Amino acid sequence: MKKRISRRTAFLRIAGLGAVASAEKSFGFLGLFGGKKKGLEPDTQGRVILSLNDEKYRQLKNNGTSVKIDVKGKGKPLIVIRRDEHTVLTLSSKCTHLGCEVASPQNGTLICPCHKSKFTTDGTVIKGPAKRNLEKFRTEADNDTITIFL
Known about the structure:
This protein is of the alpha+beta class. The chain has two domains: 1-34; 47-149, 3-layer Sandwich (Rieske Iron-sulfur Protein). 14% of the residues lie in helices and 29% in strands. The longest helix has 21 residues, at 7-27. The chain is elongated and about 70 Å long.
């Protein structure tokens, strides 16, 4: 004989699944939902090379622009920022407070939507609760490519 569950128990189980799905969407833990994340594959030397002739990255030829890129194995996207003619930076978008995804730069600031930590476009914390700077990746650029060293 099969045991019946109450409406309350059924409701709590369904609500629990909804909470797990919501947390997965927000924080990306467990890897249970949404299948495998697609992203750029680093080469055998741990580099990601972006062609500035590719439509997705062409705007990075212009100063003050940024692009988020998904890289396999990094979890959260990386933010590639063209600061000026000679400077391109790559930062993790993973907030150092609780791991939420930091938004793309607006008015020279990156803001975490979860608890409002603020960072400069070089990844330095300017307002907590985050206490550590965003992770930075060595980046080199020429007229046609941007190379990110992971």
